[in-house]
Amino acid sequence: MPRRTQAEMEVIRTAIIEAVRKDKPMTVRQVFYRLVVRGVVPKVEGRGYRTVARELRNMRRDGVIPYDWIVDSSRTVRRPLQYGSMEEALERAARLYRRNLWGDLPHYVQVWMEKEALAGVAWDVTDGLGVSLWVARGYSSISYLYEAAQHINRALEAGKVAYIYNLGDHDPSGCDAWESVVSELQGFSIDDRRMRFKRAAVTPEQIRRLNLPSRPTKKTDSRAAGFEGESVELDALPPNTLRQIIRDTIEAHIPEYIRTMHEQVEQQERQTLWQLQDYL
Question: Against a cut of 0.85, is the pTM above it?
Fold first, then answer.
């Protein structure tokens, strides 16, 4: 395969800047798929993806793209929470104060995401709407599933209906992994009649409507029997489209008047926390 010319590399770099500026923050894989859709790099996993990853690294080091425009949620840092003073602790408490939006609503919502690398793209939406984001990382451990089920059971005990949504690859493994999550959560449930499971993305309808780039389904996958068509990764969804899907899915459970009233009360209570600093 011949090396790309200087002009060809400049086209790739320009396309990267345009894609990331529009949809930031993004993962490296999401940027790769944006360029595939535009025909800038080949869909071939090796050459196309490696080129995008290399250029993103170089462009960030050169200051062309800010580091925080590209996210990687597959690695975490565990840091102790400490304060320099009581005033600082109260200031943080006031700034981060969140009133439970779902306390009086009849539904409980969980969002499950197959890939940890995309959690940073989704978290701003789920966090802003007070919904937990569970990252399956393929097939989840029984301990992780049990923990999720306990949150669901507490909601069921309170008389709520639980809605559990999935964001995953449209491929044999992704579909099978979601079916495994459904089966395990139902097994741990105190009343699975009040549990609703739905795949929010990627769906065949989204693939057709958005003309998402696909890849050949691995016929060697033991789960491929009965799976029709090519496979599409969750990363193929444009980041802003993915965020909007998550937002629309969650907001369908929140009446507008409830949300408006909640925001007003939350602001008043946050102001009370700010005022407490005057007594220190």
Answer: no
